[in-house]
Amino acid sequence: MQPASDGYLFYQNRKTLPIIDRAEGIYMWDTKGKQYLDGCSGAVVANLGYGNKRIEQAINRQAQKTFFAYRTQFESEPALQLAAKLVEVSAPHLNKVFYVSGGSEAMEAAIKLCRQYFYAKGEGSRHLFISRTPSYHGSTLGVLGLTAYSPLENPFRPITKAHPKIPAPYCYRCRYGLSRPSCGLACAWELERVIQEQGPENVAAFVAEPIGGASTGALVPPEEYFGIIQQICKKYGVMLILDEVMTGFGRTGKLFAYEHWGVEADIVGLSKGMGAGYYPLGAIMARHEITDLVLDSGGFQHGHTYAGNPMGCAIGLEALQIIEDEQLVERSAQMGAKLKAGLERLAAVHAIIGEVRGRGLLLALELVQDRETRRPFPPATEAHNLLTDEASEEGLVIYPRRPINGLRGDHVLIAPPLIITAEEVDELLQRLDRALGRATRRLLTSN
Ligand SMILES: Cc1ncc(COP(=O)(O)O)c(C=O)c1O
After folding, report:
1. Which of 3, 80, 190, 251 is deepest in the core (most CB within 10 A)?
2. Rounded distance, CA 231 to CA 221, Å?
3. Is 103 a pocket residue for ligand 1 (Cβ < 6 Å)?
């Protein structure tokens, strides 16, 4: 068979990518020998960096026993131990664990568990999941209805169930034209208005990323935001589901981002840092009141083949132990503060940086054509991709997206592995500085 002109393989687009040869720590090398500093942990997943010896040993130990056992036929020690460890390190009320293989699966499982709970409870009218715009909760058809990022949604609108949305607390471009603190957090109170509009008896949950990820560019809500959200959810018997797929496992300077505000989610979705790039792994955690009712009413009607397999759980257990032993949560907070200060210094020099956002090692730069008016670049400029390409030239990997519903605006996530050292933070900043210099010249002379 003849290969197509661009080969057999396809993903999202036709972009030709460097071919990975090997990776170690926070560095990667392609087959041509070029070195890259991973400034975004892949897709904010490789929290432990690459080539971790303890993970390698855990894989070897488990490989001597078995890679796989099917969850309806056997339980495994690693699955039991990881569940116990997750419960130990989580908020006290989150005491039940259900394994999945990735972030979209986690969020699918979260909304299905929530729905089944209300169904079993005799509140079957509760079927709406209010989420935020913009947001990203995954690419499968169920959670795509909660995701608000137009290019990903548009082709599938007729076959997804679109759920109601409220604006994300995107203060840099407030949907209401307000500013803090006089805004009174109108974006949080919008949840109450939408619950009332839809009828509280129809609303199952509010779903949000505690700190925004790729769709918003490390959007940190105002301090009071989740207190208001929690209060509204409680008032209307609506569950709070937090998507910690990107923020979990130390990324934001706490083990879980909900700890920043003491917010009590009913269900939490986890993935990415859980397997840290060494295995496709995820989970949901929930209150036992929820799982008890569902299990006592015929069982949770959901599951995937690879869920809770021994190898995945052995890796997840070791990853969590490494985070604890090497104090990577504390390091995320410390290195995050250093990196953020460095990014703010770069913002003082490079006119295209409109805002530096984020917490811990989940940081982002929003790019603008005009800092005074916050005017974004024309969409066709693709400033986020242009800067990413310039960074790649410098041997730095960063993660580009658009903050205005995926249609306009430009941001890049800067989220290196949590093992990054102070010297490596400086090196990241130097490479980014050079990339920004070239991107600024190209963007401001061509527009
Ligand atoms: C917040 C959030 N939720 C869900 C997902 C989906 O995860 P996955 O790509 O593993 O399906 C992602 C992925 O980027 C994410 O950032």
Report:
1. 251
2. 16
3. yes
Ligand 1 close to Cβ of residue 213 (< 6 A): yes
* 294 and 371 belong to one structural domain: no
Check which CATH number belongs to the domain holding 161 and give it. Answer: 3.40.640.10
Gap from CA of 38 to ligand 1 centroid (Å): 19
Euclidean distance between CA atoms 258 and 25, whole angstroms: 28
User: Over the stretch 135-188, which tens digit does the pLDDT of each residue have?
Assistant: 999 999 999 999 999 999 999 999 999 999 999 999 999 999 999 989 999 999
Q: Which residue has the tokens 């995926």?
A: 406
Q: How far is the CA of 343 from the centre of ligand 1 (A)?
A: 25
Residue 8 domain flag:
no
Check whether residue 76 and residue 224 sit in a common domain: yes
Ligand 1 neighbour 230 (Cβ under 6 A): no
- Last residue within a domain, chosen from 325, 358, 393: 325
Alpha-helical (H) ranges within 73-177 are: 77-89, 103-120, 141-144, 150-153
Query: What's the gap in Å between 46 CA and the centre of ligand 1?
Result: 14
Distance 104 CA to ligand 1 centre (A): 6
Is the CB of 246 inside a 6 Å radius of any atom of ligand 1?
A: yes
403 & 315 share domain:
no
Residue 102 to residue 143: CA distance in whole angstroms:
13
Structural domain includes residue 229: yes
350 and 273 belong to one structural domain:
no
Last residue of a domain, one of 325, 342, 369: 325
Q: pLDDT, tens digit, for every residue of 54-109?
A: 999 999 999 999 999 999 999 999 999 999 999 999 999 999 999 999 999 999 99
**Ligand 1 centre distance from Cα of residue 103 (Å):** 4
CA distance 55 to 276: 10
Residue nearest to atom 9 of ligand 1 (CA): 103
- The closest-lying atom of ligand 1 relative to the alpha carbon of residue 104 is 11
Binding site membership of 271 for ligand 1 (Cβ less than 6 Å): yes
Whole-angstrom distance between the N-terminal and C-terminal Cα of the chain?
Answer: 46
